[in-house]
């Protein structure tokens, strides 16, 4: 990934590879994000989806595995192999305040289903 950024200097200042994140630091990172993008091809359960929702961050996640069920209506669901769908979902959440608010609210409701 760092080689990719080296070849795309216009992105270098916008993307940071953080490496391992301590558990106690995750809530601040989630809460500071405008959107949590999780376009995984395979996921056993999808705990990061719930972590982001619990921090009030709207999710975009894959239509694969258990992700739609875990995310429920608290996320925008996309085809993880479609850059167009992913970009459209990011743009929607960044520009449509009503949609953002709805996904945050439904995300908070959703996490109550889990312990």
Tell me the layout of helices and strands:
Elements: H1 2-7, H2 9-12, H3 26-32, E1 36-38, H4 47-54, E2 59-62, H5 67-71, E3 75-78, H6 83-95, H7 97-111
Parallel strand pairs: 1-2, 2-3
Helix pairs in contact: 4-7
Q: What does this entry look like structurally?
A:
The protein has helices spanning 2-7, 9-12, 26-32, 47-54, 67-71, 83-95, 97-111; strands spanning 36-38, 59-62, 75-78. The longest helix is centred in the C-terminal third of the chain and has 15 residues, at 97-111. By secondary structure, the chain is mainly alpha-helical. The chain has seven helices and three strands. Helix 4 (47-54) packs across helix 7 (97-111). The chain has a three-stranded parallel β-sheet, sandwiched between helices.
Describe, in short, the structure shown:
The chain has 115 residues and is mainly α. 50% of the residues lie in helices and 10% in strands.
């Amino acid at each position: 990934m760092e080689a990719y950024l080296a070849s795309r200097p216009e992105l270098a200042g916008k993307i940071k590879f953080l490496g391992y994140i301590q558990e106690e630091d995750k809530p601040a990172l989630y809460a500071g994000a405008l959107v949590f993008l999780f376009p995984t091809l395979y996921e056993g359960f999808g705990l990061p989806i719930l972590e982001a929702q619990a921090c009030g961050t709207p999710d975009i996640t894959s239509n694969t595995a258990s992700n739609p069920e875990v995310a429920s209506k608290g996320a925008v669901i996309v085809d993880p192999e479609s850059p167009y769908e992913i970009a459209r979902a990011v743009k929607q959440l960044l520009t449509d305040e009503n949609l953002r608010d709805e996904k945050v609210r439904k995300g908070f409701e959703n996490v109550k289903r889990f312990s």
